[in-house]
Design brief:
Blueprint: H1 8-17, H2 23-28, H3 46-76, H4 94-118, H5 126-150, H6 160-179, H7 185-192, E1 197-198, E2 201-202
Antiparallel strand pairs: 1-2
Helix pairs in contact: 3-4, 3-5, 4-5, 5-6
């Protein structure tokens, strides 16, 4: 009479769980091989490719936006300030002219990257975008050095030895930046997985 209160599905559920459903007993019903089952292989579908593309492009957009913002602000808050007529105080300085050229290059390169990434079908490869961002970062560092030298007095200019050390540091920075361009762990992993094509950009 008691078992008539329950339907067949409820009895089957009880048979699977056991008559005792306490936590220790229920944990014993979980077999070790349940955790050792191999995961299903991830197919190289369009959804997977789109996910990898978004993961890759998000930091690129972030870096490009930050560089464009900094260089845009530096183009109006120039070193040395402005005169009463609106012209730059250091207009005649060679360092200031190099600073402005480096700042302009560092602004337009990430702006071009942002435009490329916002298109429905990007026309630049991932490696090309990374190279453009490296050039913009290098120009940003060069603009910092030239802007720093532009605001220095002639009497407080660095000695030739200090200038050589600064030039050596800049060369080492560029060498380190471009030596890592040929090897990218993310791209190497994608190549090993089967030359994934991301938005018509063949890796």
């Amino acid at each position: 009479m008691f078992w008539r209160l329950f339907d067949t599905s409820t009895l089957n559920l009880w048979n699977r769980l056991g008559y005792s459903v306490s936590v220790p007993f229920f944990q014993q019903q979980i077999r070790r091989d349940d955790f050792e089952k191999p995961e299903a292989p991830v197919n190289n579908t369009s959804a997977t490719s789109a996910k990898i593309t978004n993961t890759r492009e998000t930091p690129q957009l972030l870096v490009a936006t930050l560089i464009a913002t900094v260089t845009f602000a530096a183009g109006f808050t120039i070193p040395g300030g402005l005169k009463s007529d609106g012209k730059a105080v250091l207009d005649g300085s060679a360092y200031f002219k190099v600073f402005m050229c480096s700042n302009i290059v560092s602004f337009f390169l990430p702006a071009f990257v942002i435009y490329n990434e916002l298109l429905q079908e990007s026309f630049l490869a991932i490696q090309t975008v990374a190279l453009v961002l490296r050039f913009s970062v290098g120009g940003l560092v060069f603009a910092f050095f030239t802007g720093f030298l532009a605001v220095q007095d002639n009497k407080s200019r660095w000695s030739p030895t200090e200038n050589m050390l600064r030039l050596l540091f800049s060369m080492l920075f560029y060498a380190f930046m471009f030596s890592s361009w040929n090897y990218n762990p993310h791209l190497a992993r994608l190549k090993r997985e089967g030359n994934i094509c991301l938005q018509d950009r063949k890796i």
